């Protein structure tokens, strides 16, 4: 299982050291850019799910392309 967690900058060293002591945990820090991309992707997926559930208004790809 993969998890994405946010940690205060002041606690990063402590948490990384703690996690490295568990043999069953692999730590792979993300760059700021990669973290932002993942957050944007998560927001997009959330929007699509809300649109499918009827909470947000959406339009078809055809309508979008016709507008261009």
Can you tell me about this structure?
This protein has 68 residues and is mainly alpha-helical. 56% of the residues lie in helices and 0% in strands. It contains three helices and no strands. The protein has helices at 12-20, 32-53, 61-67. The chain is elongated and about 55 Å long.
By DSSP, the count of extended strands is: 0
Through-space gap between termini: 41 Å
Q: Helix count, per DSSP? A: 3
Strand content: under 5%
Low-pLDDT residue intervals, each spanning 5 or more residues? none
Broad structural category: mainly alpha
Instruction: Specify the overall morphology.
Output: elongated
Q: Biggest sheet, in brief?
A: none
* Rg calculated over all Cα atoms: 19 Å
Helix content: 55-70%
* SSE order, one letter for each helix or strand: HHH
Rounded average pLDDT: 89
Q: What would a concise description of this structure say?
A:
The protein has 68 residues and is mainly alpha-helical. It has helices at residues 12-20, 32-53, 61-67.
List its traits.
68 residues; mainly alpha; 3 helices
Explain the layout of strands and helices:
Layout: H1 12-20, H2 32-53, H3 61-67
């Amino acid at each position: 299982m993969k998890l994405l967690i946010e940690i205060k900058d002041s606690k990063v060293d402590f948490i990384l050291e703690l996690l490295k002591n568990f043999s069953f945990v692999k730590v792979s820090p993300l760059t700021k850019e990669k973290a932002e991309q993942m957050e944007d992707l998560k927001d997009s997926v959330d929007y699509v799910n809300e649109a499918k559930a009827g909470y947000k208004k959406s339009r078809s790809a055809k309508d979008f392309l016709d507008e261009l």
